[in-house]
Design a protein that fits this description.
The complex is a heterodimer of chains A (about 120) and B (about 110). Chain A is built from no helices and eleven strands. With about 120 residues, chain A is an all-beta fold. In chain A, the strands form two sheets. In chain A, strands 2, 4, 5, 6, 9, 10 and 11 form a seven-stranded mixed beta sheet that branches. Chain A has a four-stranded antiparallel beta sheet with strand order 1-3-8-7, with no helix packed on it. In chain B, about 40% of the residues are buried. Classes of the chains: A mainly beta (about 120), B mainly beta (about 110).
């Protein structure tokens, strides 16, 4: 399978704990995005990378959130001191500079986070 | 900020035609995309409009009017498998590849 993969698919944690999610994009894609989606809403942009450079972070991304893409391939999203309001589906997407004027994003299956 | 409005729900019968409207108010505009998401699944790309007019891809078509800040997705010959949520999304500049999504329209297809 050559699509975007995310791990884990589900994570249940207690408030105050740290969690880390991993995203493996489509191998030839140089752009990688993180979004958050809550029930009944569309995905909300969190941050994105071009190769290993983090080019933009949303104001939604508090200091408790950090993302890395150290070698321009996979990415990790860490949430420190989780809060119940962090419960959501965390989606990763990737895109190519060459695809449809660089606009088509390919999404992974997401990591569903539940903070108790 | 970005604001995209689309109807929350649409119900139709198999074989019918459904139009999902999207109006947007954004700080910039480079293109309008549509994504489909089945319950529990990942969003998947359907179409993209950067210029005014109609883009047709099989049973689905998408339209854009930049002057009206408006677009729509047209689903023709509805099938049960088309039951899903549909999101419009705006890319607001050439150098910025992130997408701002609407809240989504849930389409329910009945037999």
């Amino acid at each position: 399978d050559t699509g975007v993969s995310q791990d884990p698919r589900h994570k249940i944690t207690k408030r105050g704990q740290n969690v880390t999610f991993r995203c493996d994009p489509i191998s030839e894609h140089n752009r990688l995005y993180w979004y958050r989606q809550t029930l009944g809403q569309g995905p909300e942009f969190l941050t994105y990378f071009q190769n290993e450079a983090q080019l933009e972070k949303s104001r939604l991304l508090s200091d408790r959130f950090s993302a890395e893409r150290p070698k321009g391939s996979f990415s990790t999203l860490e949430i420190q001191r989780t809060e119940q309001g962090d419960s959501a589906m965390y989606l990763c997407a990737s895109s190519s500079m060459m695809g449809l004027v660089g606009n088509e994003q390919f999404f992974g299956p997401g990591t569903r986070l539940t903070v108790l | 900020g970005q604001s995209l409005e689309q109807p929350s729900e649409v119900t139709a019968v198999e074989g019918a035609i459904v139009q999902i409207n999207c109006t947007y108010q954004t700080s910039g505009f480079y293109g309008l995309s549509w994504y489909q998401q089945h319950d529990g699944g990942a969003p998947t790309f359907l179409s993209y409009n950067a210029l005014d007019g109609l883009e047709e891809t099989g049973r689905f078509s998408s339209f854009l009017s930049r002057s009206d800040s408006y677009g729509y997705l047209l689903l023709q010959e509805l099938q049960m498998k088309d039951s899903a949520s549909y999101f419009c999304a705006v890319r607001d500049s050439f150098n910025d590849y992130k997408l701002s999504f609407g809240a989504g329209t849930t389409v329910t297809v009945r037999a």
